[in-house]
Amino acid sequence: MSLHPSLAKQTAISLTRWWAMAGLDYLVDDAPSSWLEQEKSAADHSSQVSPNRAAEAREARPKTAPTPAQPVQPEKWPQTIEQFCAAIEQGQALPGTQLGGGCAKPFGRADADMMIISDIPDFDEIEAGSLGQGQSGKLLANMAAAIGYDLADCFLTALATSRPASGDLPEEAIGELTAFMKHQIGLVQPKIVLILGSAACSALLDAELMSARGNLLFVKHNGQKVVAVTSFHPRTLIARPVLKAQSWKDLQIILINKGLP
After folding, report:
1. How many CB atoms are located within 10 Å of the residue 217 CB?
2. Which helix (H) or strand (E) segment is 60 a member of?
3. Could you tell me the domains of the chain?
4. How far apart are the C-alpha atoms of 202 and 219, rounded to whole Å?
5. Could you tell me how far CA 201 lies from the centroid of its own chain?
6. pLDDT (tens digit, 9 = 90+) per residue, 196-250?
7. Closest by Cα among 144, 150, 151 to 21
8. d(CA 135, CA 142)
């Protein structure tokens, strides 16, 4: 892929920034074991806290399940992002808000140029009540900064704002979740959409992540097309740091097309 001369310097600066932020400089002169030790440490920590969380969840579980909220019909879906966030706080049964305990609200500007879409919140995002938090949020902020975006100036959302116990979106919910996400895209009207992870890629682009990566694609909604780029979810990059080099190639597509209509 060749760059326009006016983008060469910007791309070089962004590349250097990305190496530093993503930690790829360690891949040059450190033994591979340095990454494995980090992953082992994270896994050990997870194994320590997970049983406690499970026990707390069992203790906090009510003996009688509360009556579930009635699903909000499409004609009554929120007509602004502000209404969407308020509906989550009110416990309304919008698509993706009732798949697990707790919710993580979208993060960022409702009029953002770049919209970032993932599948489900991570545990620390559920605990914080907002997307863009924790380790994944920090890495995502670095990824955005590497191509000239402040994460707070983007709009970060997910197909589901609650987290299923299985960690996967239920197959029977994909259609409604996709329709509601396209509704959100219509509200934000971004110039470009960054789609993170296999589930979100499959839902919005009807394509496998590995075949969709590296291409400038489009999300179609109501007769309109929004430019889309897809890449790995930050949680995948944290688990497999070697993939950060490939992720940078995906982000270059946004950098090259930044500012284009």
Report:
1. 21
2. helix 33-60
3. 7-41+71-257 (3.40.470.10)
4. 11
5. 11
6. 999 999 999 999 999 999 999 999 988 889 999 999 999 999 999 999 999 999 9
7. 144
8. 11
Measure the CA–CA gap between 120 and 110, rounded to whole angstroms.
19
| Collapsed DSSP state (helix, strand, coil) of residue 217 | strand
Mutual angle of helices 174-188 and 198-205, in 10-degree steps: 80
The amino acid occupying position 110 is A
Q: How far apart, in Å, are the Cα atoms of 27 and each of 30, 31, 34, 186, 243? A: 6, 7, 9, 41, 11
Contact, 125 vs 133, CB < 8 A?
yes
d(CA 185, CA 190) in angstroms, rounded, equals: 7
CA neighbours closer than 13 Å in the CB half-sphere of residue 176:
18
List, in sequence order, the alpha helices (H) in 132-173: 134-146
Q: Which residues contact 219 (CB under 8 A, 6 or more apart)?
A: 182, 185, 193, 195, 204, 205, 225, 226, 228
Pairing between strand 107-108 and 217-221? unpaired
Tokens of 148: 């000239």
Residue 181 C-beta-side C-alpha neighbours within 13 Å: 32
The pTM of the full predicted model, rounded to 2 decimals, is 0.76
Token pair 């009029």: residue: 111
